[in-house]
Each structure stands twice: as structure tokens, then as C-alpha cells.
């Protein structure tokens, strides 16, 4: 997630975009689902318990430590990386800064 929001900062050149994305990530994952491993007294509306393989459920790290979230983060990193590279690469093959 940190790589994704860092790339988002580079792409948007504004600190508010990564702040909003991180807030939404925590709000959905922790406050709403309760599926993120934070402090025990952290408030949540639901307390989801995922059962099954630790690879899928994330084990003690909860869903945030699962391969599903890893794949989702990699996809988001690739998308923002492509957006950055398209924005900085001109038709003549030179980098624009």
C-alpha cells in the first residue's frame, strides 16, 4: 500500500490524494469490516473473521496480510506506474520532468 500511495503522490503531485486513498483503505478495511490488524481497542462496525488457508485469510495479520490484498496492491501499483510513465514519456523518446 505504501508503494501505491507513494506513486499516487508522484502522479498527482498533491499530498491530499494519498491521504484520501489511505483514509478510504483504513475506513473500509478496519472501521467497516474489522479486517485489518490494528490495536485491540480500535473501533469497528463489524468484526469479520476469515477462516481457511492462512495464505487467503492472512492469518494473524487478518485480510491485509493475505495474498488477495497483495495481488490487489500489485495491480494498483502497475496501474499508477503506467499512468506515470505515459505522462512523462514524450513521443520523441525523451523523459519529460
Describe this structure in words.
This protein has 97 residues and is mostly helical. The protein has helices at 2-12, 16-32, 54-57, 67-88. Helix 1 (2-12) runs antiparallel to helix 2. The model has no long low-confidence stretch (mean pLDDT 77).
> Which class best fits the helix and strand makeup?
mainly alpha
- Global mean pLDDT: 77
Span of the ends, CA to CA: 25 Å
The number of helical elements comes to 4
Beta-strand proportion: under 5%
Are there runs of 5+ residues with pLDDT below 50, and where?
A: none
Helix content: 55-70%
Summarize the main sheet: none
Shape: flat
H-E order: HHHH
| Total beta strands | 0
Radius of gyration: 17 Å
Concise synopsis of the structure shown:
By secondary structure, this protein is an all-alpha fold. Helices cover 56% and strands 0% of the residues.
Short descriptors:
97 residues; 4 helices; single chain; mainly alpha
Topology, pairings included?
Blueprint: H1 2-12, H2 16-32, H3 54-57, H4 67-88
Helix pairs in contact: 1-2, 1-4
Amino acid at each position: 500500500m505504501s508503494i501505491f500511495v507513494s506513486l499516487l503522490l508522484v502522479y498527482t503531485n498533491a499530498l491530499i490524494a494519498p491521504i484520501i486513498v489511505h483514509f478510504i483503505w483504513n475506513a473500509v478495511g478496519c472501521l467497516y469490516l474489522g479486517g485489518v490488524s490494528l490495536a485491540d481497542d480500535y473501533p469497528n462496525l463489524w468484526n469479520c473473521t476469515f477462516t481457511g488457508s492462512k495464505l487467503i485469510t492472512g492469518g494473524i495479520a487478518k485480510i491485509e496480510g493475505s495474498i488477495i490484498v497483495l495481488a490487489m496492491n500489485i495491480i494498483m501499483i502497475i496501474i499508477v506506474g503506467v499512468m506515470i510513465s505515459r505522462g512523462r514519456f514524450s513521443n520523441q523518446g525523451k523523459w519529460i520532468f
